[in-house]
Amino acid sequence: MTGLSRRSLLGALFAASASLGLRLPAFAQGGPVRPGSDKPASEKAPSFGFEDVLKRARELSLKEHNAVIAPLPEELAKLDFDKWREIRFVAAKAPLGEKGGRFRLQLFHPGHLFQRPVAINLVHDGRAEPLANVAKLFDYGSVKFTKPLPADLGVAGFRVHYPLNDLRRSDEFVSFLGASYFRWLGRDQKYGLSARGLSIGTGLLDNKEEFPFFTEFWIEAPAGEASAININALLDSPSLTGAYKFTFAPGPESPVEVEVTLFPRKSVSRIGLAPLTSMYFLGENDRHLNDRNKYDEFRPELHDSDGLLMHTNEGEWIWRPLHNPLVQEVHNFPMTNVRGYGLIQRDRQFAHYQDIELNYEERPSYWIEPEDDWGEGRVELIELATKDETFDNIIVAFVPNEPADARKPFNFTYRMRSLTDGLKLHSLGYTLNTFTAPAYALGAGEAVSKNTRRFMIDFVGGDLAFHLAKPAGVEIVATVTNGKIFRQFLVPNPAIGGFRVMLDVEVHPTDMTNMTCKLRTGPRVLTETWAYAWKVYNF
Q: What is the fold, at CATH topology level, of the domain defined by 74-425?
């Protein structure tokens, strides 16, 4: 199965909404009224709508969380990866598209790592019907069972196909599989990082992180030549439930509109909104060439994303290169009403990866833009240590300062885009490279502490090429916490049409040293803000 080989309220709510503090979506504030009738038309002809998912989520939140998962049939549960992969969906039986639509739905069979089936409902002409007897939609190859699989087995997940890159063929462009994980593609991209519906308690090292799960989906069949598809989902976890509505519009950036309402069962202090998960193993700023982490690898870089880009409410753009730490690190960027953030694969050169199978240079970048005010909080970056490229070790989300209060629903909306390098998001100069090396003495008699490091940042783009002829007007604006800059240099770099900054920093021997750097001319900022963290680990 493609893309799996590597990594793995309103009917009763109207009366209750005031006391629950729920901000009702626009569609819940009234309905069309038939002439001569005091009742909305929807009551005359009931049909599926997002309000049904909201109602389900609210009702479920009033019950104790059921952690029991019905076991798969024993023979199915014991299949190894290779046998499970033999079970293939029969594309000719794909639901959706029967009436000429361009979207096709394919299913993932339960088994192997995916032991928890989910329910799928197809919505045609406003009517939701459960997808049953799914075994008939699969070719089991050499896999045989002594007893027929149950008709209500469910599926592990699903993917949607659409002619994304060529009108003559249908490409997989979105996939939901496992917990609340999903991935989608823009044009000419290959799967890399993932998005999640929600994160709870991530990065605390207390083994209490929750992984909310999409337990049921309602997929609305697009009519005729529709160019977008609505996918509704019910989320469940011990702490809360949620109703999600995704509208995917496949295209160059395949934008996704997301509407979410959460119903906390109890107060939750650490919720991550719109989380993203990616992999970073090796890069130009992090080659692991030290005594403890030598590697034997012909590929110079290995990552699905190489940086975190953020846009603050004050208009500042911040670029934080990713790295693979020796132990888990958590970095917070406090923000109020963040304008956007995302994990970006900025390096698009094949020569930097040299992988003709995995094509890291073609991995997408996911950009999140809140469509309402998310209030005070922080963009939280978690970097986990990994010894290979098979582990998603990068997590980013917006974490509100205010906890989610028990029995008090809240909703939020955002937009996601699947970009390439993300360089069109702003017109400033940007960070092309980040290099590190030991700082060294410049002359005889100069003493340099052992806890020093040189950080080299290549800025390019924007108006920087214009200033190469008169670099004297360009200045470095740099800051350091838990350390000090004892030398800095700004050198024109004609090879890239920009500038190289060199910062020699004496870092704190035990604490994390945080740095920022940007270029300006007079009061005018020329570049995004480069942000980085460094720690000396003495083990």
A: Beta-galactosidase; Chain A, domain 5 (2.70.98)
